[in-house]
Each structure stands twice: as structure tokens, then as C-alpha cells.
Amino acid sequence: MERSASASIDLRAIAKVDLHRHLEGALRLPTIIDLYRRAGDPLGARTPEELAPTAQVLRPMRSLEEVLAYFRVAQGAVRDYEAVERIAYEAVEDLARDNVRLAELRFSPDFLCRPFGLDWDRAMASIVAGVERASREHDVAVGLIAIVSRTYGLDSAERTVAFALRHRERLVGFDLADEERGYPPAMFRDVLAPLADAGIPLTAHYGESTGPEFPREAVEVLGVRRLGHGISVADDAGVTALVRERGVALEMCPTSNVRTNAVASIAEHPALRLLRQGVRVTINTDDPGLFGIDLTHELETARDELGFGPEELRAVTEHAIAASFLDKDTKARVRRRHFHWLEGG
Prior knowledge:
By secondary structure, this protein is α/β, with parallel strands linked by helices. The chain is 49% helix and 13% strand. The chain has 18 helices and eight strands.
């Protein structure tokens, strides 16, 4: 009966929330091809089908690090500020097409700007312009999160913190991402300290390719309010309890978690178990362009593969609204306008 009721929810039609979505991982394949062509450096691939094998991860890989290498094609497409504004606009347009009405887009200014020497502040202005224009046209509330790319080192982290402080009025949060191994949370404690003073909340990618000791340290040392993925939280009862008691939300991304080998198979994904243990689980896309998915696909996976019923689908959406770093007035307005389905029986 529960399965039947769950199946009756039109997951494409309902309003949705995506808290964990990388701008650099959201590029459309036709846009990548066009940006290379416009730059006078056309790719050998002339169609999305030809490009997909080198620009998308459509099957499980051996590790997160192997998946990260696939970003290089998209990274190489963004060569000027017009391109930056375009990908930001299209990212929001794609959210609207999937009826995502509340979202956060995260980006690493160093990762985005480094290959072609773009100025971080000018790139930020282009992102804001693209996001704001698309948000007005398509009725999507969007917050921006700046990311430290850990493999670029502490100097880059310090520069990214300074960037976030300059753009405090345009950013809703701050993130640590990239490879986890060799980059424990305590390594970034002093660098990130000014963010707390400025009231910028933290999320961090931990527990995707590392054990539960990394999520524990992120919570206890950095004071994160959310964890990107946080798969290994499920591997330690004490860490599960810590996350539950602190109200830390997990930004889980089922397809991504399989393809990065964070879980061995979708059947082993811990999202439903953690949700039933009182953890604030949310369901997100991570990199929709890279993985060839959207949020409807991820919610269908949660329903059809993980066993989420209607109450669990409502719960993860409620958790996402509550955990969003967007301001309370914006969230309340969007909820009143779009999320009537959460009141269903």
C-alpha cells in the first residue's frame, strides 16, 4: 500500500529542493561543444553522444579521484566571463525545467578560474548576473556557495576565504570539496575561522571516500551544519548519534555515491536507514551534467531502489528546506508558493 501511494506522487511535477549541486558539474554537453567552438578550439566530438564518453561518468568508477578527472573537459570550456554567465544561467534554467524551486549552486573560484586566468571577482559578478536573470525568469530561489578545492592547498584556501568575505552579501555558505584523503578537517580549522566570525555557515565534503572519523572531525572541529554525502556516517553508531544530536544534515546523492564508489551498489546506500534513525537526510544531484541525471531521477531512485515511501519523500524535502542556507523569509515564501504537496496525507 505504501509503495502504491509513493508511486502515485508525480516526482517530476512536484516542487523540489537541491542543496548539493556543483555549477562546474552542471554544464550541458551541447554548451561544452559550443564554448570550445566559440573559443576557436573545437573538440573532436561534434555531438553530445560523441562527447559523452569523455565528459560524463555513466557507470561506477573505482574511486572519487577517478571521477574527478572527468571534470577537465567541462573546466576547459569556461574561458571568458560570457561563458561563466551562460553556464550560471543555464544551470538555473535546468533547475526550473525539473521543477526545482529552491536550490543552492556551489562553485570553486580557483577551479573555475585557474585554467584561463580569469579574475575571481569578475567571474563572481558573471555568476550572479546569470543566476539572478534566470531566477527572475524561471521562479527559482538560488543561493550560492563558495568552495575550497582542497588539492590546491592552504594558500588557495586562504584566498577562497578572503573571496567569500568580500562577497558575503552574495553567498549563503562555504564548502570544502575535492579529494578527502590526506586533507582532514582539522587541517583547515585556522583558515576557516574568519567565516564563523562573519556568520557564513559551513558544509563540507566528508565521508564520501573516507571513514567516519572524517565526518566526526568535521562536526566537532569545524562545526559544519551539513556534510556533503556523509556516507560513512552510517558506519559508526557514535558518529550517527553525533550527527543526529547536532542536527547536521547529510547532502546525499545516490547516483553520484554509486559512481564514485562511495557505496558498492545502490542497494547498499544508507540513506533510508539513516533517515529512519532520525538523521536529517536530503537527496540531491551533485553533478547533473557529469552524471546525466536530474533531481527527479534521484528521487525516483530513492523511491524505486531504496524503498522511500511518500512520508520519506516528504521528510527529505522538509529536511532540505530547513537545512538550506537561504534566509528564512525566502524559504517561507517559496514554501508557500510551491510546496503544497508537503501538506498531503
